[in-house]
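Let us practice reading a record.
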Amino acid sequence: MTILTAAEMREVDRLTIEAGIPGLILMENAGSRVVDFLRETFAPLSSQRVAVICGKGNNGGDGFVIARQLFTRKLCASLDVIEVFDAETLTGDALANRKMLAACGCPVSRELPKQAQIATVVVDAVLGTGLNGPARGPALEAIRAMNEFFPLAKRVAVDIPSGLPSDDSKPIGEFAAAHFTVTFTAAKLSQCLSPIYQHCGRLTVVPIGTPPGFYDSKPMRLTTPDDLRRLFVARPCDSNKGMYGHVFLVGGSFGKSGAPAMSGFGALRSGAGLVTVAVPKEILTAVAAYRPELMTEPLETVDFQRATVLAIGPGLGTSCETVRFVKQLYAESPVPAVVDADALNAMAGDLGYTDKIRILTPHPGEMGRLLGISTKEVQADRLGHAQNLAKKSGATIVLKGDRTVIAFPDGETWVNPTGSPSMATGGTGDILTGMTAGLVAQHPKDWKRAVCAAVWLHGRCGELAARDLGEESTLAADLLTYLPEAMNELRP
């Protein structure tokens, strides 16, 4: 699913209008799609009491279209239309639609009628994606009214909840959080990033007539199951283990045998044909006992020439010898490498540039060490830091956390929507390392999509585990129990 910034959306709208689709038609289509959403989501809509609250810009114009269709088609049990600004202040398509609403005989109020407060559905059409700075004046009063006076209502935001920015990752003033958001043409940037996405409720993107060619080549996307399905078609009947890659996982140290073992099993459960876990010889027995399917070799004597993908870091430690080894492997190995945990710490301050496939999976603390900044600074601009490091280093950056960001060196960027607080436990990053390596091993020609699939599946496993085990009781290895169910959701 394409993600657009506010500037990109304005340009897309301009191109659409220049192509011969008037703004009035786009507004009519937008209002119609919201009405369709209301009918589907709140069926039977004829039993619902609806309040539509309209601003004076294009968002308000959409609201007038919605109100006119609800009124003229007699779709709801009761309808209250509240306009936030004097009608004399309206211009353009918003004014045209306000006049059409009046011509239909639909009453419009400048104040919030008492009966509107018993609405079961509130349509928020006050402020759209053009907001600059915090809401003020009558718009702010409308936001406060929506937050205070509709205790029974589900709130549906038109394009974006009023008061929220379309690009910034944090609210900059008061806003009206929504249960549902219906946005047009493409997802907006802030709707996809933490924490603003949490205030948008369930996001639905609907077409309104803009030609897809104007926006579908943009480099930023929100991962959806449809983006990943082609990786999960049925395997041919004559499959053999050699067809699905050989992952070599490098990790482990005294007291940390579980990390490489879980990571190796993650690669196996993800479908890799073979997995060899290379660990120091003193923990070899402990790793081998974890799962009989895992092959093990002493790290001191392992031959990496048989690998199709490397995974480096889980439980590895940070001794001087380890750091030298990691840097050499990172620089010289010709095969794709997934780099996590202590291997990231080994590269901190000395990442350099690579033209090889390198997939780094830092959490915010590790990202801060790679960049030489604080975790707080990383979290303040997760998207920007991930994109900048990917461009600077030539590596793919998977910045883990709420709404994981996947930034590729060529500028292509994906935001992952799956995940759960149940994953806030030790070892889940090791599981992701193995899953990523396992999927890249199976799909070397489509490795970028494989990375996105690993992150989506990882988060989805966390959601499924939380459903059955609870957020507090989920353990890292539990995620792999739910991987078959999550994969089945992606099959064509």
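A brief commentary: The longest strand covers residues 49-54.
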